[in-house]
């Protein structure tokens, strides 16, 4: 049976079978059998290919790992578990923001605590964007029913929507429209807040009726053979790809409110 995942990953990475064979020092027929017949490469080749195409080994070759081995790998992806978000040391936030070289992703509803508690790191975002780091920020759409529901679940009324509006006006305005920084307003149910820095990630789990600040956080590090990190990375990307509003600043909100008023 053909390995369609490997075929698609190579196509997406624009790597031909011939290129892969030359890079790994194997025969072209060997690569062809990996793709068309689903043959399993040696472990050293699987790791090299996974790095090349930026996919997890366990996703490309799920048959290579038993359920127990997948569990062991996932455990290795967990750097630490924090009972509360406030337990994360300030130095960890600083290291993650300052050390990012390729990407920074933030998926929250309001994210109000970031500019309030980690203002120096948030001020780094423009410089990071200037250095070529892709910055993606997803905040909740304050007018969507999912945000309203979160407020009711936490018994704080429309406070979540108000916090989002305040955060946009007070803190995210300097980032709106900045080259290399994209801010979108999403309308998805937020199961986890995600803070993504290259190959590390903080996943703030959500529990019904519990504010995110008082819910556990997983500190994850990507492993080539792991799937846990990729699960949350894929979740972030799916929210990013949902129909959403690109937020370019307060003027956009004013225009939207004016149109709604005329309606």
Main pleated sheet:
8 strands, mixed
Q: What's the gyration radius in Å?
A: 21 Å
Q: In which order are the strands of the major sheet placed?
A: 1-7-6-5-2-3-4-8
Fraction in beta strands:
15-25%
Low-confidence stretches: none
Basic shape = elongated
CATH architecture of the largest domain: 2-Layer Sandwich
Helix- and strand-based class? alpha+beta
Helix content: 40-55%
Total helical elements: 13
- Strands, count: 8
| Alpha carbon gap, first and last residue | 57 Å
Task: Provide the succession of SSEs.
Answer: HHHHHHEHEHHEHHEEEEHEH
CATH C-level class of the largest domain is: Alpha Beta
Mean pLDDT: 86
| CATH topology descriptor of the largest domain | Endonuclease, Chain A
Total domain units: 2
CATH homologous superfamily annotation of the largest domain: Endonuclease Chain A
Overview of the molecule:
The chain has helices at 4-12, 17-24, 28-36, 43-53, 57-60, 67-77, 90-99, 113-117, 119-130, 145-153, 159-172, 228-241, 250-262; strands spanning 78-82, 103-107, 134-140, 181-186, 192-197, 200-205, 217-221, 245-246. The chain is α+β, with helices and mostly antiparallel strands and 263 residues long. It folds into two domains: 4-64, lambda repressor-like DNA-binding domains (434 Repressor (Amino-terminal Domain), Orthogonal Bundle); 75-262, Endonuclease Chain A (Endonuclease, Chain A, 2-Layer Sandwich), CATH 3.30.870.10. The protein has an eight-stranded mixed beta sheet, sandwiched between helices. Strand 5 and strand 6 form a beta hairpin.
